[in-house]
Amino acid sequence: MTRKTDLALQALRVLATARGPVKGKDLAALINTTASFIAQIMKPLVDADWVTSDRGPTGGYRLAVDIAPVSVLALIEAVEGPTINGKCVLQGTPCPIVDQCAMHEAWVRGRSALLMELAKTPVLEVTTQERTAS
Q: Can you tell me the distance from the alpha carbon of 13 to that of 36, in angstroms, rounded to the nearest whole number?
């Protein structure tokens, strides 16, 4: 997961509790990023129709849907693209149909388990957990 996805999670948390539209610069300050980066963070959320973006003095970002059913996997894929890229985990090249690497079967099983867990984990479950310093 990239920093961009982490910031998108944080933005959804802010918008889920907002009582109206949140200006981009205010949202950026609330999630500790720059106003210039906020549009890049929010574009995938707008493209997924989860968030609306309105310009003008009364505009800003707001949730367009109930995000309760949105999974962590859906968010990751909305922000970062498909999670399965067809590349070999060891070689970084397209995974061959024949002559697969030694890690192929273990990687497929592990990736499947991870994707299933992310698919059943609601975004709100992740976004409502407090972070603790390590």
A: 20
pLDDT at 38 over 90: yes
19-36 residue pLDDT tens? 999 999 999 999 999 988
Residue 21: count other Cβ atoms within 10 Å of its Cβ.
18
Dist CA 86 CA 96 (whole Å) = 9
Write down the pTM of the prediction: 0.82
Cβ atoms within 10 Å of 75's Cβ, excluding its own: 26
Our CA dihedral for 32, 76, 59, 20, rounded to 10 degrees, sits at: -80
Domain boundaries, the chain: 3-63, 72-127
CATH 1.10.3720.10 is right for the domain spanning 3-63: no
